[in-house]
Model the fold of this input.
Amino acid sequence: MNKANEAEMMMGGDIFVNALIAEGVEHIFGYPGGATLHIYDAIFKQNKLQHILVRHEQGAVHAADGYARSTGKPGVALVTSGPGATNAITGIATAYLDSIPMVIITGQVPTALIGNDAFQEVDAIGISRPCTKHNFLVKDVKDLAEIMKKAFYIATTGRPGPVLVDIPKDVTINRAVFEYPETVEMRSYKPVVSGHLGQIRKAAEMMLSAKRPMIYSGGGVVLGDSSKELIDLTRLLGYPITQTLMGLGSYPPTDKQFVGMLGMHGTYEANMAMHECDVLIAIGARFEDRVTGAVDKFCPYAKIIHIDIDPSSISKNVKVDIPIVGAVDQVLQDLIQTIKETDQKPDAEALTTWWKQIEIWRAKNCLRYDRNSPLIKPQFVLEKLSELTEGNAFIASDVGQHQMFVAQYYQFAQPRHWINSGGLGTMGFGLPAAMGVQIAHPDETVVCVTGDGSIQMCIQELSTCQQFDLPIKIIMLNNGYLGMVRQWQELFYDKRYSHTYMEALPDFIKLAESYGHIGMRIEKPSEVENALAEGLAIKDRLVFMDFVIDQDEMVYPMIAAGKGHHEMLLSPEGELA
Amino acid sequence: MRHTISILLENEAGALSRVAGLFSARGYNIESLTVAPTEDPSMSRMTIVTKGTDEIIEQITKQLNKLIDVIKLIDLTEGVYIERELMLVKVNVSTAHHREEIKRFVDIFRGRIIDVSETNYTIEMTGTGDKLDAFIKTIDSTLILEVVRSGVLGIARGSKSLRV
Done:
């Protein structure tokens, strides 16, 4: 190799940074350590890529996840070897179950030490294999650029997902010429885009022949940016539509055709319509157990059409009659075209009868709650939040009762605004995810709805929010209990509240203030609206709002384990209607 | 039902554990698994024998196809195919009677004796799993010192072939 070429050689750390820049990455979330020192040195020497220093690696991955969910762009997190990698795993599994495009880079001990139980060594590839879409160990600096390209390609195409790249320290020091590939071709990975036209024609025919049709859409519509197509199809047909937890925001919730969320805590009308429908049109949804209830009682009268990008989602939990594998936007476009071209029209008479029935179910008003309580009802807080923000805020939630209350009472007007861990159900997700959203949308209102249990799982990130001036609005529904677990104990364990009482809660106001934020405590229903308005009006500071709510409130309706959609438990309030 | 699935996959470090990990993580059975590089060293060919209902086998093939390292696969059981397994058996043959008896059985089963010492024969035999089982049952079990079996290899009959 001659001198000129040597001059073009770049250290692995710099190749890594340049690869991210070539991918258009602007922000990465991370935490440094021994194995990533050269990468961090490369980050220090440039100014195109902003690094957000978190306080725990789990926070880095959740933040990158929130960034990805709210933008559609891949989120990037960088952690060190050993404990850095293991701390990241919860975040990676969270992203994997919700199919979020992310690239996670873990430092690794030098190649010569791999397998020696070296300091801060862990088999990151082995540990992350079951919770990543794919992963790579970079053994030679010459492969680094190409592997980075492949990682982004795999993470963002087909059914998206997290991809992990494990980079040994010597690879970050060694030198190679930096050439970033323009395209990538993999013989073993060719995601399907268009659906089979024959299947689409058959589906259109079945849909138009339905007497009691039902559209059930999921997170795939959000991930595939297919909200417009979903709205077009639904309006074209005039059919009722329900959505999964992950699908919320991709159809206007105030629209008459929308019957609310389905599943364990879905509305009475959505679940009853699921049970009674004769044709079910599943779009970018995966028939998860929280959605189906008991599988043997699921949609007993329905023929099922299933549109999904992932063939392995088809007939995994529920056998379907017409599968269509393809990208949701493409398939829906073709479907709309086919329906417009055919002479067959929806059965207007049957549809009128069907809607009458649905309106009877809807009149049950299953989301009623006690509005005269002297205690703050969590539903009321979210209803007011929804009104004040007109459904346009980004809401990142944690996991538990508060998450379900958001899904039920916040009227998401846009897709990619509802950021929650639906699949893995990761407590601690909310605050760091909100940070990622706020970094991506510095001028938007970003709210973290959380509980007194969840917030304490990643509360250290209040420090990150201070360092990066992230004016997140934290709405904590504080009932002093792990509410969702307590709800199950109340209903199914004879009120034996085993270890669900959060004793020794901190003074959250002082805690927020010690991190340089504003703290508020709200104890009466009459204070709720003003407090929310006041908190939301503060644009340049993080506001931690501690709402002391009714400890006994439960999430209704509810489908208990082993029950079908038609066997819901309604709230005592709901039954009054 | 028993299925024999043949897979072409990238000859990358870790590809085998991706497949094995998939089976254990999702609770699928593996009866046998064999893998080796093909004539193109960038690819390996794997044969997996598994059991399950039609729904489970469908999920297995879909999940395997979803693995990034898997290039192509076929469920051989869907057509006519040939299945073979290689077995090596070391037996104790210290008496003339045993030497004769073992030699006779090896001939009947169309195996070969590939190593001979004063007291031992080592036998090589190929065939379906059933045939190898039958041989083991036929010979005096007290004579067997070691049995090594390769697991099943499969290939479709006729012009059908699994290639890129």
Summary: The mean pLDDT of chain B is 96.
